[in-house]
């Protein structure tokens, strides 16, 4: 396989990992591992917003490639499959066509169905409402609110609006729906419903990866992820606060 083809395979694999929610050290390790599988020495530097790769071609000339990453989601299935794929190349290096076919098939994975995601988005608040010692009615309300705010967030995501606006609107919707629940059922605990409902919006993976990046010495990436998590939490909080400020006046 030619050097530029090796870089393309490694870069594509790294992109899938980074957009799927993988840690920085995992992305760098995978890129270097794929290059070594084809006897290509590489240096890789990864940030949450970009991948930088430099290799030496057969004539000793450096080749550098940069891939800008603009959107990051959570898809741990793709992360696991790319992780396994990169390790399999060490024992069985594939041709360029075979390697790209395998990577493209992983990239094309659709994941779970939308209906199942909605169901899980409702079950999670439902369980947390009970965990917070809520009543069955509060848990059911959290279940419905979780489904609604997930559907709203997905529609905004598909519309291409910037990320923090998604969380602001989702937090606003959670607050409004929780206030409406209290209006219909005054005995319910407003704050318990809100807390349970917004659980699905909290950036748990970002915080976990930030800590892991810090432990592996990737301080810049760690600070980036922590800052991103703070902004996401702030966007959700502002949305909820706005809904409560308006809604509590007429309860």
TrEMBL record:
Provide a GO biological process annotation.
succinate transport
From the UniProt record, which GO molecular function terms apply?
transmembrane transporter activity
The transmembrane residues are 114-130, 164-184, 190-208, 229-250
InterPro entries (UniProt xref):
ThrE-like_N (IPR010619), ThrE_Dicarb/AminoAcid_Exp (IPR050539)
**Threonine/serine exporter-like N-terminal domain mapped to chain residues:** 9-246
Ordered alphabetically, the record's keywords are: Cell membrane, Membrane, Transmembrane, Transmembrane helix
Q: Which domain of life is it from?
A: Bacteria
Localization, per the record, is: Cell membrane
Q: How does it sit in the membrane?
A: Multi-pass membrane protein
Which is one Pfam family of this protein? ThrE
One Gene Ontology cellular component term attached to this UniProt record is: plasma membrane
Family per record: Belongs to the ThrE exporter (TC 2.A.79) family.
The protein depicted here goes by the name: Threonine/serine exporter-like N-terminal domain-containing protein
